[in-house]
Amino acid sequence: MVSCLFCGPKLAACGIVISIWGVIMLAMLGIFFTTHSAVLIEDVPFKEEDMHNDQEPPHSIYKLYNQVGYNCFIAAGIYVLVAALSFCQIKLNHRKEYMVR
């Protein structure tokens, strides 16, 4: 029988802990970016000419804020997938403990 087990229980537990932290952190950053938090302006990738060449500068900056926020939500989703994979690995490790050879 082919096993999908590729990491041990400690590594899987570490993956879950890091994934939970990543989901919480990135979800909060996504919320703050989509609400256009002024504190995060240094993390928005805009150039100085974006401010001077645009007729409505706040709208272009808000568009960049939203894009960075969506990227944070996508990364949080990837962390959810990693947590699910780590959880499956923990379950497979527990099942392996009860198997008789």
UniProtKB/TrEMBL annotation:
Membrane topology (UniProt): Multi-pass membrane protein
A GO CC annotation given for this chain: membrane
InterPro entries registered for this protein in UniProt: Ribonucl_Kappa (IPR056552), RNase_K (IPR026770)
GO terms assigned for molecular function: RNA endonuclease activity
Keyword terms of this UniProt record: Membrane, Transmembrane, Transmembrane helix
Domain of life according to the entry: Eukaryota
Localisation: Membrane
Keyword Membrane belongs to the record: yes
Residues that span the membrane, as ranges: 12-33, 68-88
Family to which this protein belongs: Belongs to the RNase K family.
Protein name: Ribonuclease, RNase K a
Gene responsible for this protein: LOC110531452
